[in-house]
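Retro notes, item 3 of 5
We never archived the inputs for the fe (ii) ion complex last cycle. Fixing that now. Sequence and ligand:
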Amino acid sequence: MSPSPEQGLVITDGQINHFKRNGFFLIPNPLGAEGVRAVDRAQQDIEPEWEATEFPQGFNRLACQWLMVGEPLLQMVEHPELLDGARRILGTETVHIGAVGLGSAVAVIGEDGRPQQQVQWHTDGGPDAQQVSFRTALDRHDTSNAPLRVLPGSQNRPPDEVADELLQLELATGTHDETPEMCFARHPHEVEVVLDPRWTLVWTPSTWHATGVKTAAGPRRAMGWNYYPAGGRTRDLEALKHIHPGWSDWPEDRQRLWGLV
Ligand SMILES: [Fe+2]
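Structure as it came back at the time:
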């Protein structure tokens, strides 16, 4: 049975403790089954226009696609239970939404000449970066559809130490003539997150992560949004103002939540 939009959105201390130790947990998709279908349709309606649009330089294109969906997504990320969870995870009263994204990120991968559609091990942030990211799949990201792979607990470890460990595991595959620049090898403690549209991953991109290989045909669309404490990232501020020019008429609370004031 699919969860309704209001069910299961209260984030528990147990989930937050799991996040602190391991870097992730899962909640029912806050959109609910109906909402997922609506966003799925909206994404397909928007894509041709988005593809044909040249956004100003420096705009993140996947953020623009997310923002083009408009109110249903704006309201989803402003859901009081999610905001409360983000505040408790980050340990602060003041949070803002600093980065969003919608679309097929894996389509971009492989354009640099690598033989397969797969993202290498990396971290976006490190132990000092305070951030919480929500990630939903519009298409099921199973083993054949380049699932996200995370290394639990690695967000709390020195980045050099984790990088050295991943390099040794990569070398142990016996497939290299020289020291590789990118590592993909399986870590014995990694978790391959099979993300079904019914569930939403709550995680910190400070956790080391990679993807599996995309061998399945068809789309692999993801949707994400990130909360930050005061002073944190405001990557998509200009894109937000551009796509929602009426922002200056928004209530002050909403402007603050989007890092506009
Ligand atoms: Fe990443």
